[in-house]
Design brief:
CATH class of the largest domain in chain A: Mainly Beta
Pfam family, one (chain B): CT_A_B
Shape of chain B: elongated
Distance between the termini of chain B: 51 Å
Domain Carboxyltransferase (chain B): 26-284
Strand order of the largest sheet of chain A: 1-2-4-3
Oligomer: heterodimer
Strand content of chain A: 25-35%
Keywords (chain B): ATP-binding, Hydrolase, Nucleotide-binding
Number of helices of chain A: 4
Structural class of chain B: mainly beta
Number of domains of chain B: 2
Largest sheet of chain A: 4 strands, antiparallel
CATH superfamily of the largest domain in chain A: Cyclophilin-like
Number of domains of chain A: 2
CATH topology of the largest domain in chain A: Cyclophilin
GO molecular function (chain A): protein kinase inhibitor activity
Radius of gyration of chain B: 20 Å
Protein name (chain B): Biotin-dependent carboxylase-like uncharacterized protein
Number of strands of chain A: 13
Helix content of chain A: 10-25%
Distance between the termini of chain A: 70 Å
Strand order of the largest sheet of chain B: 12-19-16-17-14-13-20
Shape of chain A: elongated
Largest interface: A-B, 35 and 34 residues
Chain lengths: 222, 285
């Protein structure tokens, strides 16, 4: 089969890469279009127009479609989709209460060029979206920080980051659902992190890909 | 009245496993489940259990169990001596264990993982629909410790299948068929040739997360890390040391090292039974 190419083909918006006999890794140019493609997949699955896919796993600039009967056929299909950009009110929304009391507040403030007590107000002023999950069950990578607020990971990871720690690394913000080692910059604490991950609940993870998130500042209990 | 199994000897690493918890990878939840899934299913069929009923997966040194009521078990997967109160019993077929007797599953004579299925299945509480121990993220029951007591489910009405199917022998040489991608372009042409022509060995550092290898390091054509992306079962990830790692059932759902190729899932059962030092080749196919 030889596909017809127009004389001046536009930049392809997605590239489908093989990932074994039953999966497809679809790569997109940036996080926004990845989120839009993921939302389109969920819409089509809900509408019953997507062939059976066992797992839809977004990444930073990819979506993995795993457990697919015919990956080549699906690759041809998605290449032809018109994908609308996400709008601000797509997806579920959750508010996460935060005390801005993290041990790296001063370091982050220095990188942002603001006073330490301004970090919380700034961090809580942006709206975020869960781009993807990974690292641990219920750990969501949240996009939404403007580029001037991106900070590197700590040079030396901590052997233990407590559950509920609100953290920054690269373009992402996150809340640790449970205590683990971690290299992110800690700026705050979610007072009750229990709801982030509860496998006994119908929806085990609070932060699923596509969910919109706002951080709501709460005062110190002390 | 249900049976309880007391762990007399937990062995090096014994975990409860079933068919795992697929469908939650987008939440960061590994699939988990028995690494030698055909062995789990065969052991269950021989008892009349559902094919995916929870079993025990042992590692090299087996385990010993004492039921408080008579039960029927099947020990299969990696070949190993089986005794009941010191008397030799069948490997690979049903064994009746009287109340209070000790079922001893010995050290494997080949392979890595023996499976102990019990009529009725291991009945620990499921988490996200599965009783599997996930050693990456800690979901499901913890690995067995001496003294742990496991509940057993009620045997179903299903008839036990006759022992028609043979148990495959653990591989003397592990041959893993791969399809290149999704990140084969991160490697030099020489590395891609070496990957499917060089002699590797199974590393002793292998575990339920990944089969690690010893052999030629694969040189990248690109440096740096990939932005995190979804990982499939059987993905061959190449960390900075250049030695391929084959992702097994407890693998992380996303990762940042390039995946040069993916192993076909049916070949992973043999990978689960390949002892440290086993010669290993990757072949296109």
């Amino acid at each position: 089969m030889t596909p017809e190419h127009p004389a001046r083909s536009p930049e392809p918006l997605l590239e489908a890469r093989p990932a074994g006999r039953h999966a497809l890794l679809v790569e997109l140019p940036d996080a926004e279009r990845t989120a839009a493609f993921h939302a389109e997949l969920l819409r089509r699955r809900a509408a019953g127009t997507l062939p059976p896919v066992a797992e839809i796993v977004p990444g930073a600039r990819t979506v993995l479609l795993d457990g697919v009967r015919d990956p080549d056929a699906l690759a041809r299909r998605v290449a032809g989709w018109e994908i609308p950009p996400n709008t601000a009110d797509d997806g579920d929304a959750v508010d996460l209460p935060v005390r801005y009391d993290g041990p790296d507040l001063a370091d982050v403030a220095a990188r942002w060029g603001v006073a330490p007590d301004e970090v919380g107000a700034l961090h809580a002023s942006y709206t975020y979206r869960v781009a993807f999950c990974g690292f641990a069950p219920g750990f969501g990578y949240l996009t939404g920080l403007p580029p001037e607020r991106h900070v590197p990971r700590r040079a030396t990871p901590r052997t233990r980051v407590p559950a509920g720690a609100v953290a920054l690394a690269g373009p992402y913000s996150a809340v640790y659902p449970r205590a683990t080692p971690g290299g992110w910059q800690l700026i705050g604490t979610m007072p009750d992190p229990g709801p982030l991950w509860d496998p006994a609940r119908e929806r085990a993870a609070l932060l699923t890909p596509g969910t919109r998130v706002r951080f709501v500042r709460v005062e110190d209990a002390a | 009245m249900t049976v309880k199994l007391t762990t007399v000897r937990a062995g090096a690493l014994t975990t409860v496993q079933d068919a795992g918890r697929p469908g939650h990878a987008h939440l960061g939840v590994p699939r988990s489940g028995a690494l030698d899934a055909p062995a789990m299913r065969l052991a269950n069929r021989l008892l009349g259990n559902e094919p995916g009923a929870a079993v025990l997966e042992t590692t090299l040194t087996g385990c010993a169990l004492r039921p408080d009521r008579a039960v029927t078990v099947v020990v299969g997967g990696a070949p190993c001596p089986v005794t009941v109160d010191g008397r030799p019993a069948a490997w690979g077929g049903p064994v009746r264990v009287p109340a209070g007797a000790v079922l001893e599953v010995g050290t494997v004579t080949a392979g890595v993982r023996a499976y102990v299925a019990v009529a009725g299945g291991i009945a620990v509480d499921p988490v996200l629909g599965s009783r599997s121990a996930d050693l990456l993220s800690g979901l499901g029951p913890a690995p067995l410790r001496d003294g742990d007591v496991l509940p057993v489910g009620r045997p179903g009405a299903r008839a036990a299948a006759p022992a028609a199917a043979p148990w495959p022998a653990p591989p003397a040489e592990l041959v893993l068929p791969v399809r290149p991608g999704p990140r084969a372009d991160w490697f030099t042409p020489a590395a891609l040739r070496a990957f499917t022509s060089a002699a590797y060995r199974v590393s002793a550092q292998s575990n339920r997360i990944g089969l690690r290898t010893e052999g030629p390091a694969l040189t990248r054509a690109k440096e740096g890390e990939l932005p995190s992306e979804g990982m499939v079962l059987g993905a061959v990830q190449v960390p900075p040391d250049g030695r391929p790692v084959v992702f097994l059932h407890d693998h992380p759902t996303t990762g940042g090292y390039p995946v040069i190729a993916v192993v076909a899932e049916p070949a992973l059962a043999a990978a689960a039974q390949a002892a440290a030092g086993t010669p290993l080749r990757f072949t296109l196919g």
